[in-house]
Automatic annotation (TrEMBL):
InterPro entries listed in its UniProt record: Sialidase (IPR011040), Sialidase_sf (IPR036278)
Lineage, highest ranks first: Bacteria, Pseudomonadati, Bacteroidota, Chitinophagia, Chitinophagales
Organism for this UniProt entry: Filimonas effusa
Domain Sialidase per the UniProt entry, residue ranges: 63-344
CDD domains xrefs: Sialidase_non-viral (cd15482)
Name listed for the protein in its UniProt record: Sialidase
Domain of life: Bacteria
Alphabetized Gene3D superfamilies for the sequence: 2.120.10.10
PANTHER family: BNR/ASP-BOX REPEAT FAMILY PROTEIN, BNR_ASP-BOX REPEAT FAMILY PROTEIN
């Protein structure tokens, strides 16, 4: 069971809490949780002890599907791709295995980083990686024509194509699909996989960075009314790292040079989504890799930021914060569903998957200046977890 301090109920009761050296008003408490509609776990117990790297999709029937990898631990050969369904009555089905790394000769390899995606008018697509490590893995995919109840046989992606490496692809108004991908062999390099035929074939564009200068992986993509596309990436820079960005003005064919954003990067996964109203919502760990009091590798805090132009960002929420060294909130995924709500899903201490639903029209935001979280407005107040 998890008990999060500063829940809406506590705020309504007029309670205040202390964050190290300052006391915050009821209004600050309310703002910190403003916009949160629901917090839940996908499961409380499972036949596997460890899980990670979750993504989500909304189906036409309004159900949600979530996929992640689960097994003994990351890299173990028994790690398989798991799937859960959130039915329209609000309940999650139990995890089921939908892909594994068993080879034709019987050898078993771990699976990694599933991404579930459905192009307009197309079949549901499940991309994932198979191999002993990220430097040696290859891309595979399955398709489903019945909303994920049954899946085709696994197919290996051809050539250099790996599929979306962590985050969902985007589909442009003309049907073009852009998939943010990356490699980790010989340096961290981001690239784009581009399809104009609904995902049947792909063009490899990149690499988009010099790994000797800035190693980047796991892109997420945002779109703008003027047709420009922004890519945000995780970087290999450590203590003083930042999220990095580049831009395209020709539907992903060419990209600008990678540059730092003002937002800190702790060498962990992030994701973002373009809302129907044009705003951008980013979910990430607002910390540096070795920042004290923020859990394992700076992943002890997970945050929501909002922007209108992708350049100036405002702090909206601290979803979770803990200062225990072996704890983490990581590898988030974010989508907006047809009802306008925003769904965030992420790894909770490698033990469970947490799901948070937001109403983007009720978020209360404060400017992030110089990369500094506005701690006086939205403090990192500890959660008590059991």
């Amino acid at each position: 069971m998890i008990k999060i301090l500063l829940s809406l109920g506590l705020a309504a009761a007029g309670l205040c809490f202390k964050n190290d050296s300052s006391t915050h008003s009821t209004q600050d408490v309310s703002d910190r949780r403003a916009g949160i509609v629901l917090e839940e776990f996908l499961y409380t117990s499972a036949p596997f002890p460890s899980c990670h790297a979750v993504t989500m999709v909304e189906l036409e029937n309004k159900e949600l599907l979530a996929t992640y990898f689960g097994g003994t631990y990351e890299r173990h050969p028994d790690v398989e791709i798991r799937l859960q369904r959130k039915k329209t009555d609000g309940t999650w089905t139990a995890p089921v295995s939908v892909a594994d790394g068993i080879q034709p000769d019987g050898k078993r390899l771990p699976t990694w980083n599933p991404v579930i995606f459905q192009p307009r008018g197309g079949e549901l697509m499940l991309y994932y990686k198979v191999g002993p490590s990220p430097s040696e893995w290859w891309g595979a995919f399955k398709t489903s024509s019945d909303n994920g109840y049954t899946w085709s046989k696994a197919q290996r992606l051809a050539g250099k194509v790996l599929g979306p490496i962590k985050n969902k692809p985007i589909q442009l108004s003309d049907g073009t699909i852009l998939s943010g991908s990356s490699t980790e062999n010989g340096g961290w390099c981001a690239h784009i996989e581009r399809s104009t035929d609904g995902g049947k074939s792909w063009t490899f564009i990149g690499p988009l960075n010099d790994p000797k200068k800035t190693g980047v992986i796991q892109p997420t993509l945002l779109t703008y009314a003027d047709g420009s596309i922004q890519m945000l990436c995780r970087t290999r820079n450590n203590e003083e790292g930042h999220i990095v960005e580049c831009w395209s003005k020709d539907k992903g064919l060419t990209w600008s040079e990678m540059k730092n954003t003002p937002l800190p990067n702790n060498n962990s996964g992030l994701d973002a989504v373009t809302l129907k109203d044009g705003r951008q919502v980013l979910v990430y760990n607002h910390s540096t890799r070795n920042q004290k009091g923020m859990g394992h590798k700076g992943r002890g805090v997970i945050n929501i930021a909002v922007s209108k132009d992708g350049k100036e960002w405002e702090a909206a929420l601290v979803l979770d914060y803990i200062d225990e060294p072996n704890k983490q909130y990581s590898y988030p995924s974010i989508i907006q569903t047809s009802d306008g709500l925003v769904h965030v899903i992420y790894t909770w201490h490698r033990e469970r998957i947490k799901h948070v639903v937001l109403d983007p029209n009720k978020l209360v935001t404060y400017p992030i200046k110089g990369g500094q979280w506005p701690i006086d407005k939205l403090p990192f107040i500890k959660s008590t977890e059991k």
